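quick one
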Amino acid sequence: MKQFTQAEQKRLAGEYAVDILISRGMIFSGMKIGLGTGSTAIQAVYRLAESLKADKLRNIQAVVTSFQTHMACEELGIPVFSLNSRNIGGVLDLTIDGADEIDPENRLIKGGGGALLREKIAAYNSKIFVILADESKLVPHLGSRFPLPVEIIEDARVPVIRALEHLGASCVIREGVKKAGPVITDNGNMILDCLWKTPVDAAALEQEINAVPGVAENGFFTRLRPLVFAARGDGSIEER
Ligand code: 5RP
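structure w/ ribulose-5-phosphate:
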């Protein structure tokens, strides 16, 4: 039997989810849609553009979560608005995104692409939150493999690292590729990648980390239960 690569699984999840959500009326003409970031979320953006071209969808109004997605929308002719604009009014009908880890209760770690701050703003201001994934993202416990990204204000780097170490984390400043020094996010901040030795209470930590002065946001997404579409290696899609 054909085995689908990780890249193929991401494409399958993106295409399947957009098609099925259009057929269910959850993605609809004129809607306000939040668009996530990364190699999986972009597959949904491509499918939305195809659906607009095929006239299955009209006049969607997008709020993007990164320069990457903004540039893709510009290229594909998807109109982009600020979450604060009159058109959007701070509320999205649905946000579609990828994830780095998904536990059995659909709690997430996000931020592998460094877009967690805007991704969380979009997700937490959406009526419906949809996550797309390949099977490698399904894990029994959050934080078992993927370090938690925490976006921080540079001026507070030393006290924030100290506070996170107090919470049991080992922190590494994310380094740029083809850029000397740290990754600087689309919001002008730095990212710490944080690992715990033992399983953690993600819901409690989501709150505790954000209470540290100098933390802009962390990559635990525990207060929503997104609809997840995960593509498997055999080409099947699990919806949960
Ligand atoms: C970006 C994210 C991404 O959704 C997450 O890192 C998954 O990325 P990919 O779809 O490329 O595997 O949270 O900040």
